[in-house]
Design a protein that fits this description.
The chain is α+β, with helices and mostly antiparallel strands and 200 residues long. 18% of the residues lie in helices and 34% in strands. It contains four helices and eleven strands, in the order ββββαβαββαββαββ. Strands 3, 4, 5, 6, 7 and 8 form a six-stranded mixed β-sheet that branches. A five-stranded mixed β-sheet has the order 1-11-10-2-9. A hairpin with a 7-residue loop joins strand 10 and strand 11. The longest helix has 11 residues, at 121-131. It is globular and about 40 Å long. Residues 193-200 have low confidence and may be disordered.
């Protein structure tokens, strides 16, 4: 049974990265999708399928408590980075390094108690940047690029060993379940391409 009231928006798999000017492109890290909810002094972490993983990643919980906003819901990916700054899924999955796992935040659903899901992605990105304006150890803003650079960014991401790219229409609102306005293109050479368990 889902314990979180916030079901994540899921990208549609694509064969080609959108190249138009109205797209926002994010590096796809090989990690676990997490919804981070804070209500006052309480923080909870939920997986894509609604499982409560609050006790698993103390660094993310502490970071959420250190943010100045007391009520928010953030969507992101829990990752464990190697020395080259690339996520190491095997080390993450091993559970031996849970205390070092951090969150790349790429969307915000609620801020200051206000539901932002019907706002365009560009506005939610701005709200998320304001929420994370003061650096905290454990949660960081996921970098992104906008416009027609998508295909070039994808090729560069593949060369660096990332899992792929997620491209989102700049006007898309946050909806539960699969969205055709979010497109995920995977690096075919990455080990996650053939992995049965798709964490995104």
């Amino acid at each position: 049974m889902r314990k979180s009231a916030f079901e994540p928006c899921i990208p549609t798999r694509g064969a080609k990265v959108p190249a138009g000017p109205d797209w926002i492109h994010e590096i796809k890290h090989d990690g676990y999708r997490l919804i981070v909810q804070r209500d006052g002094d309480r923080v909870r972490l939920f997986t894509r399928n609604g499982h409560d993983w609050t006790d698993r990643y103390p660094r993310i919980v502490e970071a959420a408590l250190n943010l100045r906003t007391a009520r928010f819901v953030i969507d992101g990916e829990a990752v464990l980075l190697d020395a080259d700054g690339v996520s190491d899924f095997n080390a993450l999955h091993s559970r031996r390094h849970d205390a070092s796992v951090r969150l790349y935040a790429f969307d915000v659903l609620v801020a200051d108690g206000n539901d932002l899901r019907k706002l365009p992605l560009t506005l939610r990105k701005s709200d998320l940047a304001r929420l994370l304006a003061r650096p905290v150890d454990g949660i960081q803003l996921a970098p992104f690029e906008q416009g027609e650079v998508g295909p070039d960014l994808f090729r560069h991401a593949c060369k660096l060993g990332f899992e792929g790219l997620v491209s989102k229409h700049r006007d898309s609102w946050y909806r539960a379940g699969r969205s055709e306005q979010w497109i995920k293109v995977k690096n075919r050479a990455h080990r996650a391409f053939s992995r049965v368990l798709d964490q995104f």
